[in-house]
Amino acid sequence: MIPFINLQAQYQGMKDEIQKEINEVLESAGFIGGPKLAELEKNLATFTGVKHAIGCSSGTDALILALMAIDIQPGDEVITSPFTFYASAETIAFLGATPVFVDINEDDYNINPDLIEAKITSKTKAIIPVSLYGQTPDLEKINAIGKKHNLVVIEDGAQSFGAEYKKSKSCSLTDIATTSFFPAKPLGGYGDGGAVFTNDDATAKKIRSLLNHGQGERYVHQYIGMNGRLDALQAAILNVKLKYFPKEIQQRQEIAEIYTERLKEAVIVPKIKEERMSVYAQYSIRVKNREKVQKQLQENGVPTAIHYPIPLYRQEAFKYLEVESKEFPVSEVVASEILSLPMSPWLTVEEQNSVINEMIKAVK
Ligand SMILES: *Cc1c(COP(=O)(O)O)cnc(C)c1O
Looking at ligand 1, which residue's alpha carbon is closest to its atom 6? Predict the structure, then answer.
């Protein structure tokens, strides 16, 4: 079986450096915060061009921290995409606020900015555009809507760290942005991790406090917060991985280009819009008879995955929202046809050839 994401190959290439970093943390016995985290935050800020990069415990907690920082309360509404990983909307509901879904574009599978304004009410406080599969939505358009209606825009960049929109990096383009260092994400750690980004000093200060129990000075608590810290081991590992990340992004582009060139006649391939660069967290194509195709690929050693089979308004946990599927024709079609192929910088030429050949056979 071809690996869906070959993290073993990545580790083999960085093994000595990662083990050295881990050892330094073990020898120092400083496991929470400390110099490795400070170094990572500095490196993340430099990489994205954002003033404040704040390490935290996961991409999910990063979203919760961003929403808490702007004081999202029960009764508030937050607009997001229904075609994303559950956490994009779960975090809104977790704070007692109401996720309001807006259908996606048929080309990039991101929230359709032209449908956002119709969903804004007096209760709307924020918009969370998700940069799905590693490509940002039209953030300029979404920022303009946010500005016009006095809403905070929070990019969920869990899948798009390293991507670009008009030459600026994902996570640098909105009031606040979040990312995830879950192992399978473009920049993954060896456990859970995430980060929040903002240029605003006061917001950054509040987030740093919220992720440490709302603490300012030690044992003096200003907010109801949480334990949302990133540990020193993850920070040390991510520092090594970040060094190699620009090269990996290049490799992801090259692999995606080959997929697109050779599959574009057979299936619907991803469309990267003008002035955008995707990091291809997933390389997802669309086919009509997905179940049959997926089964045949599996039988021939090609693993695939479905990101995501059930739009969020149809999840049992969101039944209480009483949202009707017919409001989201594009999400419905895409969720029934989408299929992600093996994708990582370490996919070999032979492996990719095999994926492509099996794919072409399967859709015949
Ligand atoms: C992975 C992911 C998250 C959550 O990140 P975790 O680090 O797993 O908590 C949030 N949003 C999107 C779009 C994701 O893909």
Answer: 59
Q: How does pLDDT run across 331-346, given as a tens digit for each residue? A: 999 999 999 999 999 9
| Residue whose entry in the numeric block shows the structure tokens 């970040």 | 242
Q: Give the start-end residues of each E strand in the chain.
A: 52-56, 77-80, 98-101, 124-128, 152-156, 164-165, 168-169, 176-180, 194-198, 276-277, 283-286, 338-341
Mutate to test the pocket of ligand 1, among 5, 180, 196 (most ligand atoms within 8 A of CB): 180
Q: Which amino acid, 250?
A: Q
Sign of the CA dihedral running 160, 164, 168, 169: positive
Strands 176-180 and 338-341: unpaired
pLDDT tens profile 48-70: 999 999 999 999 999 999 999 99
Residue to substitute in 65, 159, 190 for testing ligand 1 pocket (most ligand atoms within 8 angstroms of CB): 159
Ligand 1 nearest-atom number relative to CA 181: 7
162's tokens:
């390293």
> What gap in Å lies between CA 216 and CA 207, rounded to an integer?
11
Q: Is the CB of 81 under 6 A from ligand 1?
A: no
Distance 260 CA to ligand 1 centre (A): 26
In degrees rounded to 5, what are phi and psi of residue 246? -60, -40
